[in-house]
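F.,

This is the one I mentioned.
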């Protein structure tokens, strides 16, 4: 068995958490000034902030399959055999205009997408007609893995 692998872990931009905390502070001050309880703002903000800070897209590729896991949105690891993939492309995207933001997204053009930070995605067209897209932090390392394992792709 070939031991050449590619592993990557990425998360949401930390600016999201900072923005949520800032909004919570401002919202709490406004509510306190109006003699209302800031508890609602805090109850909503803390879980959302933790969600952004703890979320992680993990890619684990080897010569047999493409495996992914996006905690806490997908609890079970998913595997796609290279034989089940019809086409692989690398695409420079804009998360806002192409996907409407970050997270698990649906796109007519790119299918089910798992978008964290950055603008590079690996786009998979499967033989069963489904499409999957994943944010990639280290495109060059991933291209090296695909070349070493003789896995064909388009750019």
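My design for it:
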């Amino acid at each position: 068995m070939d031991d050449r692998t590619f592993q990557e872990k990425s998360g949401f931009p930390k600016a999201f958490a900072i923005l949520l905390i800032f909004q919570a502070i401002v919202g709490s001050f406004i509510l306190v000034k109006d003699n209302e309880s800031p508890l609602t703002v805090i109850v909503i903000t803390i879980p959302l902030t933790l969600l952004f800070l703890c979320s992680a897209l993990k890619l684990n590729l080897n010569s047999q399959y493409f495996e992914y896991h996006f905690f806490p949105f997908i609890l079970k690891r998913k595997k796609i055999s290279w034989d089940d993939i019809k086409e692989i492309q690398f695409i420079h995207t804009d998360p806002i205009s192409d996907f409407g933001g970050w997270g698990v997204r649906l796109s007519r053009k790119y299918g089910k997408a798992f978008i964290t930070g950055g603008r590079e995605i690996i786009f998979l067209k499967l033989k069963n007609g489904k499409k999957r897209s994943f944010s990639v932090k280290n495109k060059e390392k991933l291209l090296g893995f695909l070349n070493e394992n003789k896995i064909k792709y388009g750019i």
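The beta strands are 6-10, 56-61, 65-71, 78-81, 85-92, 103-107, 111-115, 120-126, 131-135.

Talk soon.
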